[in-house]
Amino acid sequence: MAKALTIFLLPIFISLASVKSALAASVEEFYKGKAIQFIVGASAGGGYDTYTRLIARHFAQYVPGKPTMVVQNMPGAAMLIAANHVFNSAPRDGTVIGHWSGPLLLQHLMGNPAVQFEGRKFGWLGMPTSDSLVCIMTDRSGIKTAEEWRKSKARVKLGAIGPGTSGTDDTKLLAAATDFPLQLVEGYKGTADVRVAAETGEVDGTCAFGWQSAKVTWGSALRARQVHVVLQTMLQSHPELKGVPLAVEYAKTEEGKKLLRIASEIYGKQRLYSLPPQVPEERVRTLQRAFVNTLKDPQFLAEAEKAKLEIDPVDGPGIEKMVTGLYEIEPAILNRVKQLLQSK
Questions:
Q1: Residue 235: CA atoms inside 13 Å, Cβ hemisphere, count?
Q2: What pTM does this model have?
Q3: Which residue, 11, 78, 166, 169, has fewest beta-carbon neighbours within 10 Å?
């Protein structure tokens, strides 16, 4: 009986193996001689750009057919130009990967008409690391600590990219939850531009940076004490910033604490890598595996460590689950967040 069953099942196993082999061969054949284009929604020199260029240098070896890699910066409209482009205009064949601010998903939930995508229809590759968002002030601002900021008689000017990014949205929720005096100055194309604005005195600082990128792209100024990390807007302190207070410690009400918890969840997970809708499933799975394998590659990790870039990845299915959960947010909470983020 067992022998008969084996004889019966053997052709099925062979058939499945043949299908799997054919799919792998077709993926390799598709990518051979092609290029994969990374679309970065921020300007060159910032954290989004830095992570992407590092990933792109190692990604090809894990994609069958070893396509070439191209990185294109497409800043504008707080990264919305890039996100809309990836969703609506990019080829739906697995040759374009988008990297833009994940919190733009919240803008879609709030009904922003400029958002021309549906978050649950993207393909998701993953995320290289979560962000520990911080507020950084320049030395010339005269503010070196959270207490000095809180007691400031003048509103502190904070540079930001725009709605859908942490520098704008997280800062608005911070303002609603605490009594830190601040004024948003928006419209910068990326964190690199915000950094220049701070260094030239155009703004006093920013809450647009994650510590993971700030310590790299703003490292020399931090070491020279030309800028100071004064506040962490996440719920847990980063191990390297134990002396810097958490924003939740300054929340005035329980609602304020809840707003900061939402901000921590949404804006701490923003470095998402996406595919356009309707990319063939086998190519999606192939690129998801390539993304995870790249982030585990010893040479990649050595280069990331040398550049002081933190790597603590979340895979594509993990991001898909997070995005699905975001779309199930409690309506009352969403309405309150919408009210705050749409205020001028």
A1: 13
A2: 0.79
A3: 11
